[in-house]
């Protein structure tokens, strides 16, 4: 399927989008020289994209489905151009991601506090056992 779209005044066909997706996949990969392993075609907002990434096909499809769901949700709630809907969906996903990172960090801090408390209580327990042993002699 060959779909032409225009972004920022530049015409972009599916071949260009695919090469951009491949480039972004390589740039985001920790080793730029490493070639991603999976090439998966997905549909997002009615357009077909080829995603090239080292993650599994199932994972890539889950990510694409999430993006599609967000864009479709924005489009269905208002009449706006697809690019505007994509930007708003990206903002919503970034918001969710930042909140998830913040929640995870809060949980890490709580767990660390619990571990510190547990270590302190173990020390107190050991001290109490030594005191009991000393007093029973």
Describe the 3D structure.
With 137 residues, this protein is an alpha+beta fold. It has one domain. 66% of the residues lie in helices and 15% in strands. It is built from three helices and four strands. The protein has helices at 14-28, 57-77, 82-136, and strands at residues 5-7, 10-12, 38-44, 47-53. Strands 1-2 form a two-stranded antiparallel ribbon. A two-stranded antiparallel ribbon has the order 3-4. α2 (57-77) crosses α3 (82-136). The radius of gyration is 26 Å and the shape is elongated. Mean pLDDT is 83; it is low at 1-12.
How many distinct domains? Answer: 1
The rounded distance between the terminal residues' Cα atoms is: 87 Å
Radius of gyration: 26 Å
Biggest sheet features: 2 strands, antiparallel
SSE topology sketch:
Elements: E1 5-7, E2 10-12, H1 14-28, E3 38-44, E4 47-53, H2 57-77, H3 82-136
Antiparallel strand pairs: 1-2, 3-4
Helix pairs in contact: 2-3
Provide key terms for this protein.
single chain, 137 residues, alpha+beta, two-stranded antiparallel ribbon, elongated, disordered N terminus
Brief rundown of the structure:
The protein has 3 helices and 4 strands. The strands form 2 sheets. Strands 1-2 form a two-stranded antiparallel ribbon. The protein has 137 residues and is an alpha+beta fold.
């Amino acid at each position: 399927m060959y779909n032409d779209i225009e972004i920022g005044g530049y015409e972009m066909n599916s071949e260009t989008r695919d090469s951009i997706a491949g480039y972004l996949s390589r740039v985001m990969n920790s080793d730029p020289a490493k070639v991603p392993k999976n090439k998966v075609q997905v549909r997002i907002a009615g357009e077909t994209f080829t995603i090239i990434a080292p993650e599994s096909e199932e994972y890539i499809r889950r990510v694409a489905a999430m993006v599609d769901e967000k864009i479709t949700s924005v489009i269905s709630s208002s009449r706006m151009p697809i690019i505007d809907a994509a930007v708003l969906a990206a903002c919503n996903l970034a918001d969710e991601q930042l909140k998830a990172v913040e929640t995870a960090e809060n949980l890490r801090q709580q767990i660390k506090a619990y571990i510190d408390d547990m270590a302190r209580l173990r020390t107190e327990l050991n001290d109490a056992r030594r005191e009991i042993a000393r007093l029973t002699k």
